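Backbone-to-sequence.
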C-alpha cells in the first residue's frame, strides 16, 4: 500500500461495475424557448451494450501471480531498550528467525511463448525478504512456475517468463497516446484473491500526475480497481492494453472510483528492454527541484503553473556543467514546457543519456537558454541514498530495526561511501569507507561519541570499502576472543581519530 496526503494510494496487489448507456443524447443546455434541437453526441465506435464478447476474447491471457518469500523478523521484544542485548534477535538454534510471506497480484501474457507483464511491487520483496518462488495461475486454474526476467523499480514494471513448453494466449499493447477522457475501458484482474474479475468504466483523465516521480504519469479511470489488481491490464474497446493497473486513491483502501494505470506508451518500451535483458537508461540533470507554488510565484513574478524552482545542483553534474544554478526557474526542456503535468523529472527521464538539449530558464527575472548534455540517471538505491542522507538530519530508523551483524555487534547502521555522499560530507569523492547513518544510543559507539556522518576508514588497521569487509573483521575479532574493534574514524572537516568500540 502507498499512502498520499492521508488517503490510501494502494499499490494494487483490480474491480463494482458501472451502468452502461449508449446513444445517450448530450449537448449544451439550451434556453426553454430555444427551438433548436440539442445536438447528439455519438459514442466512439466500439462502446458495446455488453462487454461479454470482448471479455471472452481477452480473459484467457490475464493471469494471477503469487509469490512465496522468506522474511527475517524481529523477535526481540526489548529492541531499542537497555535490555536489548540481554535478549538477542535469535531463535533457539542460534539463527535469525524467519517466516514465510506471500504476495498476490495480476499480470497478462504478451507473447505465445509465455512472457508476462506485471508490476514490480507484485514480485519484488522488501529488503528483509528473499524471493523464493513465483507461480502464475491461468484462468482455468492451471499453475506454472515462472522466472523473473527483469524488473524496473522506477516505472514499477516487471517481466516474467512462464516455465512451460506450450503456446499461450496473449494480448498486445495499444497506443495510450490516442486515449481521451471519456473513452470506455475494462479492467481484468485478481482483486482480493477472488480470481478473474472484470470491471468497466471510462477514462477519467490522461497523464495524471499522482506522485511526482519521473514516471508517475497515469491514466486515471473510474473502473473499479482494488488490491490484487496490481499488474493487471486496462483494455480499450479494441482489446488493446492501454494501461497497467497500478494504484488507487481511497480513504478506506477499497475502490472509490479513482484508479491509476501506467500508460502503455510508457510501459511498452521498458517491457521490451527488460525482455531483451537490456539495462534501462534514463536521463538525469542532477538537481533538486520544487514546484512553483503561489508564494514562490509571487516572489519571483512568475505564473503559478509554469516551471520548477532549482533548490540545489549536484557538483559536476549535467546541470552544473551547463551553468544551471540554485535559484533558477526551469521553464522548458528541449522545447517542451515544464508544467504540473509535465514536470522536469518526467521530461528529462525520457531523454536518452548523452543527448544535448536546450534548457530555457529564468534567472534574476531574465530569460536565458543553456545547453546541457543529459547525464545517466543513477540507480534507485543511489538516488535513495542521495536523497535520504542529510548528515544533520535525524535518521528515520535506528540500528535496532536491522538485524545485520554490524548493527547487532557495534550498534551502528552503515552504508557504503558514494561520490554523492562524499560531496555532502565535504570529503574527497574518491574516498573509500563506510558512512555511519545512525548510532544506537545504548551502544558503546554512542558513549565514545560516534555520530551520523562519521566515516569508518579502517577496522583493526584494515581498510573497509564494503560492508562485508567490516562484517568479516568483527567475526574475526569474536573468533579470536577480542571484546572490541579499533575503528579509524574521519569526522566532518577531515579530522581522523581512532576509537576502540566494544562488541555487544
Amino acid at each position: 500500500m502507498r499512502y498520499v496526503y492521508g488517503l490510501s494510494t494502494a499499490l494494487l496487489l483490480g474491480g463494482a461495475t458501472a451502468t452502461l448507456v449508449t446513444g445517450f443524447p448530450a449537448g449544451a443546455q439550451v434556453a426553454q424557448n430555444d427551438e433548436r434541437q440539442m445536438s447528439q453526441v455519438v459514442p466512439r465506435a466500439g462502446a458495446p451494450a455488453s462487454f461479454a464478447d470482448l471479455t471472452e476474447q481477452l480473459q484467457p491471457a490475464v493471469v494471477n501471480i503469487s509469490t512465496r518469500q522468506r522474511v527475517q523478523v524481529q523477535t526481540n521484544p526489548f529492541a531499542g531498550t537497555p535490555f536489548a542485548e540481554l535478549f538477542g534477535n535469535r531463535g533457539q538454534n542460534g539463527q535469525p528467525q524467519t517466516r514465510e510471506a506471500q504476495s498476490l497480484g495480476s499480470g497478462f501474457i504478451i507473447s505465445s511463448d509465455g512472457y508476462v507483464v506485471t508490476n514490480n511491487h507484485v514480485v519484488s520483496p522488501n529488503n528483509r525478504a528473499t524471493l523464493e518462488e513465483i507461480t502464475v495461475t491461468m484462468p482455468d486454474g492451471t499453475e506454472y512456475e515462472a522466472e523473473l526476467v527483469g524488473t524496473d523499480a522506477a516505472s514499477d514494471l516487471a517481466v516474467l517468463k512462464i516455465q512451460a513448453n506450450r503456446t499461450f494466449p496473449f494480448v498486445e499493447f495499444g497506443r495510450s497516446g490516442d486515449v481521451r477522457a471519456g473513452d470506455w475501458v475494462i479492467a481484468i484482474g485478481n482483486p482480493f484473491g477472488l480470481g478473474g474479475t472484470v470491471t468497466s468504466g471510462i477514462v477519467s483523465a490522461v497523464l495524471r500526475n499522482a506522485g511526482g516521480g519521473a514516471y508517475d504519469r497515469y491514466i486515471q479511470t473510474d473502473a473499479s480497481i482494488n488490491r490484487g489488481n496490481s499488474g493487471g491490464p486496462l483494455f480499450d474497446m479494441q482489446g488493446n492494453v492501454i494501461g497497467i493497473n497500478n494504484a488507487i486513491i481511497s480513504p478506506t483502501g477499497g475502490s472509490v472510483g479513482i484508479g491509476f494505470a501506467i500508460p502503455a506508451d510508457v510501459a511498452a518500451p521498458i517491457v521490451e528492454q527488460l525482455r531483451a535483458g537490456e539495462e534501462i537508461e534514463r536521463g538525469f540533470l542532477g538537481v533538486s527541484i520544487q514546484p512553483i507554488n503561489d508564494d514562490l510565484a509571487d516572489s519571483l513574478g512568475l505564473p503559478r503553473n509554469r516551471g520548477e524552482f532549482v533548490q540545489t545542483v549536484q557538483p559536476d553534474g549535467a546541470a552544473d556543467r551547463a551553468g544551471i544554478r540554485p535559484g533558477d526557474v526551469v521553464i522548458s526542456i528541449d522545447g517542451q514546457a515544464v508544467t504540473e503535468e509535465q514536470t522536469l523529472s518526467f521530461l528529462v527521464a525520457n531523454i536518452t543519456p548523452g543527448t544535448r538539449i536546450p534548457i530555457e530558464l529564468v534567472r534574476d527575472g531574465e530569460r536565458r537558454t543553456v545547453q546541457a548534455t543529459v547525464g545517466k540517471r543513477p540507480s534507485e538505491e543511489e538516488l535513495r541514498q542521495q536523497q535520504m542522507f542529510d548528515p544533520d538530519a535525524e535518521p528515520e530508523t535506528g540500528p535496532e530495526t536491522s538485524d545485520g551483524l554490524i548493527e547487532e555487534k557495534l550498534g551502528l547502521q552503515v552504508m557504503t561511501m558514494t561520490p554523492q555522499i562524499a560531496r555532502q560530507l565535504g570529503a574527497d569523492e574518491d574516498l573509500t569507507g563506510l558512512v555511519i547513518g545512525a548510532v544506537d544510543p545504548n551502544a558503546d559507539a554512542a558513549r565514545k561519541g560516534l555520530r551520523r556522518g562519521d566515516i569508518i576508514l579502517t577496522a583493526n588497521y584494515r581498510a573497509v570499502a564494503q560492508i562485508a569487509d567490516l562484517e568479516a573483521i568483527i567475526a574475526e575479532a569474536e573468533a579470536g576472543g577480542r571484546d572490541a574493534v579499533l575503528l579509524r574514524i574521519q569526522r566532518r572537516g577531515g579530522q581522523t581519530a581512532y576509537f576502540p568500540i566494544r562488541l555487544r
